[in-house]
Specification:
This protein is of the alpha+beta class and about 260 residues long. It folds into two domains: about 130 residues, no CATH class; about 110 residues, no CATH class. Helices cover about 45% and strands about 15% of the residues. The chain is built from eight helices and ten strands. The strands form three sheets. Strands 2-1-4-3 form a four-stranded mixed sheet, with helices on one face. Strands 6-9-8-7 form a four-stranded antiparallel sheet. A two-stranded antiparallel sheet has the order 5-10. A hairpin with a 5-residue loop joins strand 1 and strand 2. It is elongated. The two termini are about 30 Å apart.
Length: about 260
């Protein structure tokens, strides 16, 4: 197959091929040019792939409100060789730490439920969240520039709750934690399971922060959220490739022609 671009999302690839168009050109070219077609096509594909990737990045900026840098940079591409005249545009599906974008973007591409985030998995393992529950930032609680809970808040919250779990304490506030909160340090607790202050046990399921005499929700626990399909991954890349590939192909052909005439 000569010159396909493949858009890959999981196991559902989409592709476009320029094979028939190149074959038509090949019949009209002199022998020397026909022999250079693999190199010309490889170079044209490798010029096209970054533009197709950038089209997907622009689409992400338009679809999502304040996407994180990882999400914005998640479309990647492979390069073609003379032996394999194929390039692929895909969402990053591997990550050293954390959830890869291909996994957490899948509900936005296909619709349906989302996987648990890393901190939700930690809450499940500690027994703080129940199977089937998810953690959403509470309304009015501070968020980072991307609309998520700040990383330091998550680290501090998990650290405190994990310490309680490891020593066998309840997730509720203790007298010691209330004293620390009065000194200005936020304390995190889950208000259920044992005797608590008046009214606390009636709060919705979630994790709460006490700072001084103020108590407010950090996250609330909800049943599995469902997402509608909103990001039509691949269409922007394909449209861009169809617009620019043959311009690049002709540019590399004339470069080969110029070299031929110079010899």
């Amino acid at each position: 197959m000569a010159g396909p671009l493949i858009v890959r999302q999981g196991n559902r690839p989409l592709s476009i091929s320029f094979e028939s168009d190149i074959a038509m050109l090949e019949r009209e070219l002199p022998r020397w040019a026909s022999e250079r077609i693999p190199s010309i096509t490889r170079n044209a594909l490798n010029d096209t792939a970054p533009e197709a990737r950038e089209a997907e990045r622009q689409k992400i900026r338009g679809v999502f409100d304040r996407p994180t840098p990882l999400t914005e940079r998640s479309p990647l591409y492979t390069r073609a060789t003379k032996e394999r005249l194929v390039v692929e545009v895909f969402i990053r599906d591997e990550l050293g730490r954390g959830t890869p974008p291909a996994r957490y973007l899948r509900p936005q591409v296909e619709g349906g439920g989302r996987p648990h985030k890393r901190f939700e998995v930690a809450l499940l393992r500690m027994g703080i969240m129940l199977p089937g529950e998810y953690a959403l930032p509470a309304a009015g609680y501070r968020r980072d520039q991307y609309g998520n809970l700040p990383g330091p808040t998550i680290v501090q919250m998990l650290s405190q709750l994990r310490a309680f779990a490891e020593v066998g304490f309840s997730m509720n506030e203790t007298a010691r934690s209330r004293k620390r909160a009065k000194r200005g340090r936020p304390r995190y607790f889950v208000p259920e399971g044992v005797r608590v202050e008046r009214g606390i046990s009636r709060l919705p399921r979630g994790i709460y922060e006490r700072q001084g005499n103020r108590i407010r929700a950090v996250v609330v626990f909800v049943r599995a959220p469902s997402y509608r399909k909103r990001y039509d991954f691949g269409q922007a890349a394909i449209a861009k490739a169809e617009r620019v590939f043959f311009d690049y192909w002709r540019r590399h052909f004339y470069a080969e022609l110029q070299r031929k005439l110079s010899n």
